[in-house]
Design goal:
Length: 232
C-alpha cells in the first residue's frame, strides 16, 4: 500500500520543516509513505526525512537533463537533491498548464530513465463520465505510458479532485480494474480521500494506495489515512 501526499502549491520551506518534524514523530503504520512538496521545499523535506522510511517526490519533472526551458526542473536535478520520484500528468497540469498525453509520456520516460519513480495521473472529467467516455479517456491516457517497474498509476477522476466528491468504492474498483487490464502496475486512487473514507476505498481489491491532496496538508489527517492503509 502506497500513500502519497500531493501538497500542490502549499508549504514553503519553513512550513515544510515544521510538517516534516511533526511527521517524523507521528505513527504512520506500515504503508509506504511519500510526500510531494513544491520544488522550493524539496531539499528541506529530503533533509528532514532522512533516515526515515518516508520518501520525497516532486510534483512535476521535465524530460531533458538541462537546457533552455525556463521554469522547469530536470530529472537529474531531482536525483541530485535525493528526491525519490515525481508525479506527472496531474489533472491540474493538464487543465491549467497545457499538459498533453504526449508531454506526460516524455516526462515519465525521462524520469524513469534517470532512476526516479513515477506516479502518472489519469482520469476522466465529469462531462466525459456523463458521456460514457471514461474507458476511452483512460485507454488514451494509458496508451502513452511506458511499462516500467518504477511506474505507479494514480486514477484521479477530475470531478473528485478538491471537490469533496469521492468516487464510490465501486467506481474506483471498476476504473482500477480497467487500468490494470491495460498495464500491469500498482494503481492509487485520488480524489477527496479523507480519514473517514480511506479504509473503504483502500479496501477495494484493485486499489493499491492513495494520492491525497487536501487531507495531506495536516499531519493528523495524513497519518490517519496512512494508518487506515495499515489495518487492511
Ligand atoms: C490531488 O491533488 O491529487 C487530489 C486527489 O486532491 P484532493 O485529495 O484534495 O481531492
Amino acid at each position: 500500500m502506497l500513500i502519497a501526499g500531493n501538497w500542490k502549491m502549499f508549504k514553503g520551506p519553513a512550513e515544510t520543516a515544521a510538517f516534516c518534524l511533526e511527521l517524523r514523530r507521528a505513527e504512520v503504520g506500515v504503508a509506504d509513505v511519500v510526500v510531494c512538496p513544491p520544488f522550493v521545499s524539496l531539499a528541506t523535506a529530503v533533509q528532514l526525512l532522512a533516515g526515515t522510511e518516508i520518501a520525497v517526490a516532486a510534483q512535476n519533472v521535465h524530460w531533458d537533463s538541462e537546457g533552455a526551458f525556463t521554469g522547469e526542473v530536470s530529472p537529474t536535478m531531482l536525483r541530485e537533491l535525493g528526491v525519490y520520484g515525481a508525479i506527472v500528468g496531474h489533472s491540474e497540469r493538464r487543465q491549467f498548464f497545457g499538459e498533453t498525453d504526449e508531454t506526460v509520456a516524455r516526462r515519465a520516460e525521462a524520469a524513469l530513465a534517470a532512476g526516479l519513480s513515477v506516479i502518472a495521473c489519469v482520469g476522466e472529467t465529469q462531462a466525459e463520465r456523463e458521456a460514457g467516455e471514461t474507458e476511452e479517456v483512460l485507454r488514451r491516457q494509458m496508451s502513452v505510458l511506458p511499462h516500467d517497474e518504477q511506474l505507479v498509476v494514480a486514477y484521479e477522476p477530475v470531478w473528485a479532485i478538491g471537490t469533496g466528491k469521492t468516487a464510490t468504492p465501486q467506481i474506483a474498483q471498476d476504473a482500477h480494474s480497467f487500468i490494470k487490464s491495460l498495464l500491469d502496475a500498482p494503481v492509487l486512487y485520488g480524489g477527496s480521500v479523507k480519514p473517514d473514507n480511506a479504509a473503504e476505498l483502500l479496501g477495494q481489491p484493485a486499489v493499491d494506495g492513495a494520492l491525497v491532496g487536501g487531507a495531506s496538508l495536516e499531519v493528523d489527517s495524513f497519518t490517519a489515512i496512512c494508518r487506515a492503509a495499515t489495518h487492511l
